[in-house]
Design goal:
Elements lengths: L2 H4 L6 E6 L5 E5 L5 E4 L1 H6 L16 H29 L2 H4 L3 H11 L4 H13 L9 H11 L10 H31 L1 E9 L5 E9 L2 E9 L7 H13 L8 E6 L9 H12 L6 E4 L1 H12 L3 H19 L23 H13 L1 H7 L3 H11 L3 H17 L2 H24 L9 H14 L7 H19 L2 H9 L12 H14 L7 H15 L8 H5 L6 H8 L4 H11 L6 H13 L9 H20 L12
Parallel strand pairs: 4-7, 7-8
Antiparallel strand pairs: 1-2, 2-3, 4-5, 5-6
Helix pairs in contact: 5-6, 6-8, 7-8, 8-27, 9-10, 11-13, 11-17, 11-19, 12-16, 12-17, 13-17, 15-16, 17-18, 18-19, 20-21, 21-22, 22-25, 24-25, 26-27
């Protein structure tokens, strides 16, 4: 930072006094506010984000632009100085957590031969957790080097890291296998499948086995640069089912992201299910609800009147943010961007729409305030440039004071708000299968009950219902209807006349009965016991059972209180323990970008898959063995 930039704020003040420490006393040239202090205090007077110093309300936009780079440079310089100071004060053990210090710490601990240095480089290059230096394979190479002759050849880094990985992978499989098999036998297995890209833009497909014990990473498939069709994904699903914990008969459900090539929508999902059911007839395939909720919101905000109203209010909101003169009166603006539907997740638009409605009163009152009138008077004295600024401000005031704009924005938020819940259900690895249908039912209730602010409410209502029916039919399968039927949260809802719910329950129970020891007889008994559950008879007649509905996951509730209906319990526990979203693969791709990054872009596919397997399943083991571990309940 040069001397000119360092004293950038002084020229905007009338300095009257300077002491021996460099502190000065001066008056702002724009608002006549008096200050005493260092240059940082004077500069903060022009920074709207600084809440400790009163912001100047009279300076021009040119002054703000001139000082914005100064604020950014000061902040970066301060952060860099603090980081250097913290690094200097760190001990050797604390530096291990710093990525740039890890390799030197490892080499210092095991210094004494070339093999130690090479081993540290191998661990760093492979992206392995540095706890692996305690692994027996790590120390084995050091002992070999000490006993080696003069003709000893150092092993390659790839061989070193590969042997460490194999050793850890064997230990992890042995430790997790028993728990996975027991959980799969109790509550079944869900397979999560999603496609993505690595740092080299190669298409890959990740698969997970999800049980009530957690998310276990299974495999990473390379598409070899070819856009694969539904048949290829069916073969991959069949291979993953064969490797299910315990037995293939423990896997009843596959959740696929609708953005996966080869499974682009409901029709492709049906085709994939037909291909998989040739070998495994009891498996049902569903689409990720996070993607489906987003598609519904996207269709809502494509309606011209909703999109236009939202853009008008967003433009006014951003104008308030840019003109720092009003920032003190409207601190809640935040500058949160409302982008086009094609540029962001539509669920994010629905959330931002709600925030705009929350800030309606301060936005409207601001355009009627005395401060706004003073600003208009000031712009009138600036000639042509001021008149252009006034024209823009008046256009924003017209939009903000138009009741129809706010009503359309409120209407869009009300009919899309339940879809936010659907997306959050899908963005989770908790057992949420039983609450998906109810979330979709809330959307149609909003459409039917909420008064539409339009000149043709009947036509608008019909348009919204068409969007709802289109997305609902694509998003829901028989498994969602069956889960809704046995969900204890909704036992008081009348569903006897709902043909889809009852047909879904009967279809899924008959399909899953192949894996029950009694076969179809178990399905018949479960259908009879379903009447006891709906009538709250037997064990379900106890009030304590229904008081505990909101205190534990639904599948655990059936395990606790469903002993009097053992056949229904067997089906309900496996249905209600299923996940309805693809959160595990979504988080996986962020880990993939961290491990196989630009500096490690030469990691082969097999090595990358092995590193990810160890990394993710080490985290799962740590979570399961935590003394405070307790399964969280899904948000209803």
């Amino acid at each position: 930072m040069n001397s000119v930039t360092r004293g950038l704020a002084w020229k905007h003040f009338d300095i009257t006094f300077k002491d021996e420490h460099g502190n000065r006393t001066g008056t702002c040239n724009y608002c006549a506010l008096k200050f005493t202090g260092s240059h940082g205090r004077f500069a903060a007077h022009f920074n709207p984000d600084d809440k400790c110093i009163r912001t100047c309300l009279e300076c021009s936009e040119e002054v703000l632009t001139e000082l914005s780079s100064y604020h950014t440079e000061c902040r970066k310089r301060k952060e860099s100085k603090a980081k250097r100071k913290k690094l200097e004060e760190m001990t050797a053990s604390e530096r291990v957590v710093k990525k740039q210090k890890k390799m030197s710490d490892v080499c210092n601990r095991y210094a004494g031969s070339e093999i130690d240095n090479q081993l540290g480089k191998a661990v760093f290059a492979a992206g392995l957790p540095f706890e692996m230096v305690e692994n027996v394979e790590f120390k084995k190479y050091g002992k070999l080097r000490q006993r080696a002759s003069e003709n000893y050849t150092e092993p390659s880094a790839d061989k070193i890291s590969g042997s460490i990985l194999n050793n850890v992978q064997r230990e992890l499989k042995y430790e997790l296998q028993e728990r996975d098999d027991a959980a799969a036998l109790r509550t079944g297995v869900t397979i999560n499948l999603d496609a993505g890209e690595d740092v080299n833009r190669h298409d890959v497909v990740a698969t997970f086995h999800i049980t009530t014990e957690g998310e276990r990473f299974e495999s990473l498939h390379d598409t070899d640069g070819i856009t694969r069709d539904t048949e290829w994904y069916a073969k991959m699903c069949i291979a993953t089912i064969r490797n299910s914990p315990g037995s293939p008969k423990n896997c009843f459900h596959i959740c696929v992201d609708a953005g996966t090539p080869g499974v682009r929508g409901a029709k492709d999902a049906e085709k994939l299910q037909e291909l998989v059911q040739v070998e495994f007839a009891w498996v049902t395939i569903t689409l990720c609800q996070m993607h489906q909720g987003n598609l519904y919101c996207k269709d809502i905000f494509k309606i011209p009147v909703y999109a236009d109203s939202l853009q008008k209010l967003h433009a006014a909101r951003m104008w308030i943010k840019i003109h720092h003169w009003s920032y003190a009166q409207y601190r809640r603006s935040g500058g949160l961007a409302i982008q086009k539907v094609s540029e962001t997740r539509a669920v994010g638009q629905a959330i931002e729409c709600g925030k705009i409605m929350r800030d309606k009163q301060p936005v409207v009152s601001l355009f009627h305030s005395e401060v706004f009138g003073v600003w208009i008077a000031k712009q009138q004295r600036l000639g042509t440039k001021g008149r252009d600024a006034i024209a823009i401000a008046e256009a924003h005031r017209t939009n903000v004071t138009d009741p129809a704009v706010w009503m359309h924005c409120e209407e869009a938020f009300n009919v899309s708000e339940p879809a936010i819940k659907i997306a959050r259900i899908g963005d989770s690895s908790k057992p949420t299968m039983g609450i998906v249908l109810h979330a979709w039912m809330q959307i149609i209730q909003r459409i039917n009950e909420y008064p539409l602010a339009t000149t043709a409410p009947t036509a608008r209502n019909r348009e919204l219902k068409n969007i709802y029916m289109k997305r609902k039919e694509a998003a829901l399968s028989v498994m969602h209807y069956a889960a809704f039927a046995v969900e204890p949260l909704y036992v008081d809802i009348n569903m006897w006349d709902n043909a889809k719910v009852m047909d879904g329950f009967n279809t899924v129970v008959l399909r899953m009965s192949v894996c029950h020891p009694l076969g179809e007889e178990a399905a018949q008994r479960a259908t009879k016991e379903f009447q006891i559950f709906r009538a709250k008879q037997g064990c379900f007649a106890r009030p304590v059972a229904w008081r505990m509905v909101n205190e534990m996951p639904s599948y655990q509730w059936f395990q606790q209180f469903g002993a009097s209906v053992p056949h229904l319990q067997w089906f309900a526990v496996r249905i209600l323990s299923m996940v309805s979203g693809g959160a595990a693969p979504e988080r996986f791709y962020s880990k993939l970008g961290w491990i196989k990054n630009a500096k490690r872009n030469r990691l082969g596919h097999a090595k990358t898959e092995k590193v990810l397997w160890v990394h993710l399943n080490l985290a799962l083991k740590k979570k399961l063995y935590d003394v405070d571990y307790m399964e969280e309940k899904a948000v209803h």
